[in-house]
Amino acid sequence: xxxxxxxxxxxxxxxxxxxxxxxxxxxxxxxxxxxxxxxxxxxxxxxxxxxxxxxxxxxxxxxxxxxxxxxxxxxxxxxxxxxxxxxxxxxxxxxxxxxxxxxxxxxxxxxxxxxxxxxxxxxxxxxxxxxxxxxxxxxxxxxxxxxxxxxxxxxxxxxxxxxxxxxxxxxxxxxxxxxxxxxxxxxxxxxxxxxxxxxxxxxxxxxxxxxxxxxxxxxxxxxxxxxxxxxxxxxxxxx
Length: 239
What we know:
The chain has helices at residues 18-31, 43-50, 54-66, 88-109, 112-130, 134-151, 155-167, 169-177, 188-200, 203-225; strands at 40-41, 70-72, 78-80. The longest helix is centred in the C-terminal third of the chain and has 23 residues, at 203-225. 64% of the residues lie in helices and 3% in strands.
């Protein structure tokens, strides 16, 4: 039997959860870049992949469309949403603002339990970092930032924060890819500084550390997009 690939998922037949299972699987594939930006999504192929009728497939696609993860063209073709790099500055502004707000509130309102949970989430992130597990780092990074958000005690900020973190997961894959296959342990520094500021109750420092963290990630991502490998050598044959 050939090995199972990202496009060959075991049929999902959980009663009452067909559309939900398809939605969760496709959403994970899109956010992890298993399904590439602008990749065609064919209902017939998806129906075969998940072993179910097209009705739950369509329902899942509608949900993904509402989240901006897929787009439907005028000819009715359905594609994974492109990565709109031109929107990245606006995304970075929004993420920067929410990260600063929740870090400041977390420094003001955190409990010992909150701090302990944040530290545990950081330990999970470091475990993934030690294994150079990019998918694990992305998931545990989200969990770390949501633990900070939860410590801010505002469910509306937490809702917005979660959406922004999820929207940025595809970009985060490219960020970790920019390290060339081995993410250095120095990436832990920003998280550690945020934790110390929150634990100390220093609102100004917590906000600054959160701001610096977003800028550092953003600058490296932009640098990765603008990198090149061919401007430092000549195609002229040696004499």
